[in-house]
Amino acid sequence: RDFFEDALGFCREEFGESNLVHFTVHMDEETPHAHFGFVPLKDGKLSWKGFFPDKAALGAMQDRFYGRVGALYGLSRGEKRIEGEPARRHKSVAEYKAESRRVQAELDEKAEQLESARLELASANAELASARAQLVECRSQVEGFAARFERIKAELAQIAECLSVRGFLGSFKAKLAEFAENPICKAALAAGRDFITARDGRRAEKVLVDGAREKVGEMGELSREMDELSLLDEAGDMRGASRKLDGHEAPARPRDNQVL
Q: Structure pTM?
């Protein structure tokens, strides 16, 4: 209401209150606006040119309205036609509707493309999350393989060290006792009893040899499990690294009479 009252005051000052015929506020469109009419009477003469002698005068009036009313309410002046620039032709209703349909079609197409891109992104994110989960699982398995490989390698090395002194029953027994945390060495120590006779030594040696074959079988099973690990390409590199820990290749499966 304040805006329209100020607009009415502007019209009174510009065209003379006695010349105003009407000032009507319209609320029938999305943007409230007003229409006004006046009689172009100036100095007792009816003259339109007395108020607007040329086209520039109308633009100047719009500038004055913007400065005294529009700007106070945060409105914009709008684009001004540059001198020498041809007047803009208003579009017909048919042209406006055709352009509106074209713009709407473009918006619909962009919306479809955006939705498609959103779905593709969601799918890609899901695949990425799945790949990351697989990678975590793969790394966990590889770390487990490496730990098992190190354990088997250490146990085989202890068995080999015990067998290297099997000809000396006292040293044989002492070495088995030293590696008693190794289940196979502990079982061999129990099988050899007092390690007094050669028979005691052979019983302990048999336990070690059988245990070594069992460990070599575990190594083969470990190798097969690693070969089956193919979740990600990176797994191959990890598997190769785990097979050669600390510069030691995993031992190949020996023949029956060549366990160690």
A: 0.43
Q: Where are the domains of the chain?
A: 2-84, 140-249
DSSP string covering 172-238: HHHHHHHTTTSHHHHHHHHHHTT--SHHHHHHHHHHHHHHHHHHHHHHHHHHHHHHH--SSHHHHHH
**Tens digit of pLDDT per residue, the chain (260 long)?**
999 999 999 999 999 999 999 999 999 888 899 999 999 998 888 988 889 998 888 889 999 999 999 999 999 887 777 766 776 677 788 888 898 999 999 999 999 999 999 999 999 999 999 989 888 888 888 888 899 999 999 999 999 999 999 989 999 999 999 999 999 999 999 999 889 999 999 999 999 999 999 999 998 898 888 888 754 445 455 545 555 544 544 444 444 444 44
Q: Say how many Å lie between the first and final Cα of the chain, rounded.
A: 103
What class does CATH assign to 2-84? alpha beta
Helix (H, G, I), strand (E, B) or coil at 41: strand
Cα torsion 87, 88, 90, 94: sign: positive
CB 190 within 8 A of CB 144: no
Assigned token pair, 151: 């354990």
**Could you write out the DSSP letters of every residue in 76-123?**
---PPPPTTPPPPPPPPHHHHHHHHHHHHHHHHHHHHHHHHHHHHHHH
